[in-house]
Amino acid sequence: MGLVFWQVFVRLFDAWANDGNYSHGFLILPIALYFAWERWPRLVAAPQRPSWLGLVLMIGGIGILLAGFWGSELFLSRIAFLPVIAGIIWFMFGTVHLRILAFPLAFVVLMIPIPAIIFNQIAFPLQLLASRLGEWAISVVGIPVVREGNVLNLAHQSLEVAEACSGIRSLVSLVTLGIVYAYFTDSRTWVRCLIVLSAVPVAIVANGARVAGTGMASEWISPAAAQGFLHDFAGLTMFAVALLTVFVIDSLFTRLLHLRSAQARNG
User: Fold this and answer.
1) Residues near 231 by Cβ (< 8 Å), separated by ≥ 6?
2) Number of alpha helices (DSSP H) and beta strands (DSSP E) in the chain
């Protein structure tokens, strides 16, 4: 794996280090390895039934790698190591082991940057949505504002909701943390999915609130509040609030389930 994929891994590490949208990638692999280690007793107890189909899957992964190299498509070359690893597990140990390790392998996908064409299709609508939410919140408090696309025109300056402010960075990070949190707090699949899905609207609303807060601060305090330390601090604060909101939603939902369960037993 090291010899075949070393160029892929070097570029992947470079993307994590230099692209803020995927800086969480450094955490994904250790967490995935923990998920796999946690399944070690099940792996030891599972029967070993090697399958030649795993060799086919592994060869297919190598084919995807070559297609990514020849077509200069980073996403294909990066995603190729997953079918290769899955194929090795399937070929050497069997279907049961592959099924046990399915979740850790699927979790690793989060560390791979999505193709630029898909990223742009997600980021730009989020920019517009954050602009609309910011415009609405700013106008509610009585500050005159006119929105032109993703630009908010205030009395003293104009604020552009750039790609970095689209919220996709906090969205990906919050969904990732939501997956980890849901994994450790509940064993029911549908509850885990609900927790993860709740992170999406929370992240969108939190980013809109951050844009609105930046606009308000620039009008009430100083135009300098829309940039520099205060701008970055507002982003970190709203992400913390969003993460706490996900925890609160899960707590309320759990209490609601317990209440309904108690009513069903008493009724």
Assistant:
1) 214, 225
2) 12, 3
Give the closest residue to 240 by CA, choosing from 136, 135, 232, 214: 232
Measured CA to CA in angstroms, residue 76 lies from 72, 176, 199, 236 at distances of 9, 22, 28, 32
Task: Give the Cβ contact number of residue 146 at 10 Å.
Answer: 11
Per DSSP, helices labelled H in the chain are 2-18, 25-38, 40-45, 53-70, 74-79, 81-92, 95-100, 102-108, 116-140, 168-185, 189-220, 228-266
Going by C-beta distance under 8 Å and a sequence separation of 6 or more, which residues neighbour residue 258?
none
In eight-state DSSP terms, residue 151 is E
pTM over 0.90: no
Q: Which residue has the tokens 């317990």?
A: 258
Do residues 129 and 171 make contact, with C-beta atoms less than 8 angstroms apart? no
Lowest mean pLDDT among 35-39, 161-165, 203-207, 214-218: 161-165
Amino acid at 72: S
Rounded distance between C-alpha atoms, residue 178 and residue 192, angstroms: 9
Residues 6+ apart with CB under 8 A from 178: 195, 196, 198, 199, 246
Reported as a single tens digit per residue, the pLDDT across 127-141 is 888 888 888 888 888
Q: Residue 88 burial by CB count (10 A; 0-12/13-18/19+): exposed, middle or buried?
A: middle
